[in-house]
Design brief:
This protein is an alpha/beta fold. It has a domain of 206 residues: TIM Barrel (Alpha-Beta Barrel), CATH 3.20.20.70. The protein is built from 14 helices and eight strands. It catalyses: L-aspartate 4-semialdehyde + pyruvate = (2S,4S)-4-hydroxy-2,3,4,5-tetrahydrodipicolinate + H2O + H(+).
């Protein structure tokens, strides 16, 4: 099967480096929202326009159908259609990582194969949730997915949502698989992360916007950011400043984003809700969220817009 984008050739998957090491999907990735029409159907034209904007403003890659992309409430067909539409929009300018994780290994394999056919460069695979499998079963799940598809895997470690951690020892064993290449790290355990970084070549991407600089400076590959939906250039500038040898500037840029990060990610509403509210105020593709999520209120959207304007006015 012909692969696309940065996965088209093995050496292209490994040539982009950072001060810390290899970044197989680029450094600056956005956990892209899934735009819907006002009627709640998939907005493929909006997805193309948003993807083009994100890449034009600094994103090396886009992660589709993750938490921010409302993967629990989109259908298998919608997930595949989204990958195809975004690939059409960005071509080879950016990598596409498709979220395929479910609580069911067999279903995840099916989604992985469909994402490969649709043109994804990699797969984001979350720890199986709800059933809370032991570590041996978690490891077997990821190995089964990696064996089934020709695409590289990003392990998604987010125990606050799944109820199950990918323990550092499990990560170290999984790193031996040739197609398990990266981690989206939402475990809030820098000690555990550093233990894995010290013993493997896994590329670590923080999925927590407040950790962008902290993980990067500790040897991470970059980030998968939700807030980058609205401020892709600002988050890219944090990494650029660090790579240019100006950690003080990188720290100032990270700190400058804290008010918006806190309001979008830690103020009681999911990042999907706040991202869509702010994108809507900016006149960018977004649309409603799907139930059981509910839209942000006007006051919340007003506050987000004010913080966004403050951030970009000094960026």
């Amino acid at each position: 099967m012909e692969l696309h984008g940065r996965a088209a050739e093995t050496d292209r998957m490994t040539t982009q480096g950072t001060a810390q090491g290899t970044a197989p999907f680029g450094r600056a990735l956005c956990a892209m929202i899934t735009p819907f029409t006002a009627a709640g159907t998939l907005d493929l034209d909006g997805a193309r326009r948003l993807a083009d904007r994100l890449v034009s403003e600094g994103c090396d890659g886009l992660v589709l159908s993750g938490t921010t992309g409302e993967s629990p409430t989109t259908t298998d067909a919608e997930k595949s259609a989204l990958v195809r539409a975004v690939r059409e929009a960005v071509g080879d300018r950016a990598s596409i990582v498709a979220g395929v994780g479910t609580a069911d290994t067999r279903h995840t394999v099916e989604l992985a194969l469909e994402a490969e056919k649709a043109g994804a460069d990699g797969l984001l695979v979350v720890t199986p949730y709800y059933s809370r499998p032991p570590q041996e079963a978690v490891e077997a799940h990821f190995r089964d997915i990696a064996d089934a598809s020709g695409l590289p895997l990003v392990l998604y470690d987010i125990p606050g949502r799944t109820g199950t951690r990918i323990e550092p020892a499990t990560m170290i064993r999984l790193a031996e698989h040739p197609r398990i290449v990266a981690v989206k790290d939402c475990a809030y355990d820098l000690l555990g992360t550093q233990k894995v970084l010290a013993r493997t070549e896994l590329a670590y991407y923080t999925g927590c916007d407040e950790y962008v600089l902290a993980l990067y400076a500790s040897g991470g590959a970059g980030y998968v950011s939700t807030v980058a939906n609205v401020a892709p250039g600002h988050f890219r500038s944090i990494l650029d400043a660090f790579d240019a040898g100006d950690p003080a500037l990188a720290a100032r840029l990270q700190q400058r984003a804290v008010p918006l990060i806190e309001s979008m990610m830690a103020a009681g509403l999911p990042g999907t809700v706040t991202s869509k509210a702010l994108l809507g105020r900016l006149g960018l593709p977004s649309g409603p969220v799907r139930a059981p999520l509910r839209p942000a209120g006007r006051e919340t959207a007003d506050g987000l817009l004010a913080l966004y304007e403050e951030l970009v006015s000094v960026s």
